Amino acid sequence: MSKDLHITPLEYELIEAWLDDSLSSEQEKAFQDMEKEDSDWALKVKEVKTLREDLESLLVKNELEKIHEEAFEGSNPRTASFPRWIWAVAASLALILVAWWGFQGGFQDPNQKLFEAYYETDPGLITAMSGTDSYEFDRGMVDFKEGKYQEALALWDPLLEENPSGDTLLYFVGMANLELQNFQESKENLQKILSESSSEFEEDAKWYLALIYLKQGELDQAKLLLSDLDKPEAQKLLEEIQKES
Question: What top-level branch of life does the organism fall under (predicted)?
């Protein structure tokens, strides 16, 4: 998007309704007025359309990857024929690597090992954030899903300053910070979600906050949060922490 091209939430909502062919008579008049009055209107419509296509492409890509994994799971692809000595060397190197990793693992912090075993990146939202009609949020979500967490934060942090209690925004800012290993910032974001009366992200916030506490060695806080979660992974992790401590 051009630096000078600013799409307001109302404009974003109007363009989305036009793309969905769901304009009310009042919105249709507003859309026509914008076409006449805003010289950048066609560019704004193109930007929002491109954003939606990017989000849809990411969804299709994720689905294709799942189908590919399922299709080839358990299959035995044909391997090239190599001399036996090559396989012998490869096997020796593999044994050395396994031994080295085992040696390294013996010195790895048990909390870190558990964190790595249970941590998975949040996949992000597939569709636009309901109720906000924010171009900047959706553009940031495209970056987030592509692993561009710093770019996502550059778009989301200003939104968070405007709406510091928005739980969806807080959660994904927390997730981006966590991916960037900004653990303190992520912890504060997630704690703020839990301080609210209710949030659809409460369970996920507890889970990731527990993992942060685990990584930082704050086991009592981690166990307290995990014991309050019903998900099987939480109970399994809680048992493993109790074994280690």
Answer: Bacteria
